UniProtKB/TrEMBL annotation:
Location of the Helix-turn-helix domain: 7-54
Stored NCBIfam families: excise
Name of the molecule in the record: Helix-turn-helix transcriptional regulator
Gene3D superfamilies, per the entry: Periplasmic binding protein-like II
Occurrences of domain PBP (ranges): 104-291
Xref: InterPro entries: HTH_17, PBP_domain, SinI_DNA-bd
Length: 317
């Protein structure tokens, strides 16, 4: 993050992966420092870094990947509601979507980003608050990703599901795995405390589905109700010794010190759009970008992604 002393609410919301209303709540609760210029709220880099240090959050990275600078992203606050002409909104929290959004704008599409989890993404698509949802929701009954949840959360709506990547989900544990954590059943051990993702996040759904298969309840797991809204934050909490275990992706495990990763599940990370909009210029542009060598080359040097099916239609409901 470059040194800046007049960050706006929108800037800080983007850096912390939260909505504008979330930033106002932090100010109200005295959790983040700020100052005013007239009636406008502003932040210094020191305010943000102090909050990051105290909370364990990580600001959004501002460096470039290939030819695409991540600080070009525009953020959309879903709590305000979406109105006509406000752009093409892509939901989800993965780096791929940040770069996709920038490529869309390079192709003349006003693309905005909303950083929310899989469940809320699909619900927002149902209510036409967003243009594209993303999902990595596992269903234990079918051992399939996303399709059963799309059918449930968008009843009667024809949808097209497009693959973005495959990722490995697993367990973040302390370096050296001193408690020998290996399986989902370890969550119920008396000597294990977890930190969880928010309700509706794909990682939390994966955990809940596996607890269900083991006939366990969240109430039997120490730390189950302690939540954070990013893979990086829960991994960092394990690295600092504040928790023994968390669920997340292999890619994030490579970025955090003092943790190891226990692989558990290969997951499919998909985009979901309403089929009636597949022939719109915006969705056609999205397909063109996903299938282009230029876009895919952005990820060939980044570990943790399998892009062999990127841009492939997985299912049409």
């Amino acid at each position: 993050m470059a040194t800046r002393d007049a960050l706006t609410v929108e800037d800080v919301a983007g850096l912390l992966n939260v909505s504008r209303s979330g930033i106002y709540a932090l100010i109200k609760n005295g959790e983040i420092g700020s100052y005013k210029v007239g009636r406008k709220i502003r932040f210094t880099e020191a305010h943000v870094r102090d909050y990051v240090t105290r909370s364990g959050r990580e600001p959004r990275r501002q460096e470039a990947y290939g030819s695409v600078a991540l600080d070009e992203n525009k953020y959309f606050d879903l709590s305000t509601g979406r109105r006509g002409g406000e752009g093409f909104v892509i939901c989800g929290q993965d780096l791929i979507l940040d770069i996709l959004s920038n490529f869309m704008r390079m192709h003349g599409v006003t693309a905005l980003r909303a950083y929310i989890g899989s469940y809320d993404s699909l619900v927002s698509l149902y209510h036409d608050k967003v243009s594209v949802a993303t999902a990595h929701l596992w269903d234990s009954s079918s051992d399939d990703y996303n399709v059963p949840h799309v059918r449930t959360l968008l009843p009667g709506i024809r949808c097209t599901i497009i693959n973005v990547t495959y990722r490995t989900q697993g367990l973040y544990v302390a370096k050296g795995n001193p408690k020998n954590i290996q399986t989902w059943s370890d969550f119920a051990r008396d000597d294990i405390r977890m930190i969880n993702r928010e309700k509706g996040a794909g990682s939390r759904v994966l955990l809940d589905e596996n607890l269900k298969l083991l006939d366990l309840y969240g109430s039997q797991v120490a730390g189950y109700d302690e939540e954070n809204q990013s893979h990086l934050a829960v991994a960092s909490a394990v690295g600092r010794g504040e928790a023994d275990i968390a669920v997340g992706t292999e890619k994030i495990a490579r970025q955090v010190e003092n943790i190891d990763f226990v692989p558990m599940k290969r997951e499919r990370y998909d985009l979901v759009v309403k089929t009636e909009r597949v022939d719109t210029p915006e969705i056609k542009t999205l397909f063109e970008i996903l299938r282009s060598a230029k876009f895919q080359n952005e990820f060939k040097s980044i570990g943790g992604y399998d892009i062999s099916d990127m841009g492939k239609i997985i299912h049409e409901t």
